[in-house]
UniProtKB/TrEMBL annotation:
The keyword Transcription regulation applies. It comes from the Bacteria. InterPro entries: Homeodomain-like_sf (IPR009057), HTH-type_TetR-like_transc_reg (IPR050109), HTH_TetR (IPR001647). Pfam families: TetR_N (PF00440). Residues 45-105 form the HTH tetR-type domain. It comes from Streptomyces bullii. The keyword rRNA processing does not apply. Keywords: DNA-binding, Transcription, Transcription regulation. This is TetR/AcrR family transcriptional regulator.
Length: 232
């Protein structure tokens, strides 16, 4: 996660509004997104989490263009100056949320692939589908963030940043599937597969409940298994 750390300042008087977690589900009391306790030992992280939680709430309610920094600061129960010192403004908050989502998805996928390989799996298609499942499950767990980045309402230059990450994603999938990127047919096949995963991740944000989300993940993984098989 990006952002300059500073010592925690004095919180404004009064009751702060409850803020939902940036993940799709509530976390147990005293637990952070990483499963570690949030306490006095992590004041900097607590400040950053408060700012990012508030920013996500305002971005999803108003859209990026109409989101106000004063409202974000008020919802975070921190002074406006703290927001600027940590993130430099609204764009910095948005990009920090994006980086957090991207890094969490990459960590989740990498952990799944490591576990599969550790269990003796070496089939490229099986590994690819396992990684895709991990990514889609992450999109469901972090659906508020996934929905935010699916919208065409972000800071200037974000579309370019997202396209760069998409290209890197395609290259990683090509290596995982052991596809020769010099062959146009292979590149196109991997790009189509990656696009299917991205489209499914966006659909998961609109699922009514976990049962529906799991049904979609299972169906998409079946499609990916079929499409990943090279033509004879």
């Amino acid at each position: 996660m990006s952002g300059i750390m500073e010592p925690t300042g004095t919180e404004p008087a009064g009751q702060c509004p409850d803020r939902p977690s940036r993940t799709g589900t509530d976390l147990p009391d005293g637990q952070s997104r990483t499963g570690l306790p949030d306490g006095p030992a992590e004041p900097y992280g607590s400040v950053r989490h408060a700012l990012l939680d508030a920013a996500l709430e305002v971005f999803t309610a108003r859209g990026y263009a109409d989101a106000g920094l004063a409202e974000i600061a008020t919802r975070s129960c921190l002074p406006l100056g703290s927001l600027f010192q940590h993130y430099g403004g609204k764009r910095g908050l948005y990009l920090a949320l994006w980086e957090e989502f991207r890094e969490e998805q990459e960590r989740r996928t990498a952990a799944t692939l490591a576990a599969e390989r550790g269990g003796g799996v070496d089939d490229p298609i099986v590994l690819f589908v396992a990684g895709a499942r991990a990514y889609l499950e992450g999109a469901w767990d972090n659906r508020r963030l996934a929905r935010l980045f699916a919208e065409d309402d972000g800071p200037g230059g974000f579309d370019t940043l997202r396209r760069q990450w998409d290209r890197a994603w395609v290259r990683r999938n090509a290596r995982l599937l052991e596809v020769d990127e010099k062959r146009r047919a292979g590149r196109v096949r991997v790009r189509v597969l990656t696009t299917v995963i991205g489209g499914a991740a966006r659909e998961l944000g609109d699922c009514a409940d976990e049962a529906e989300a799991r049904q979609i993940v299972d169906e998409v993984c079946g499609i990916l298994t079929h499409l990943s098989t090279p033509p004879r």
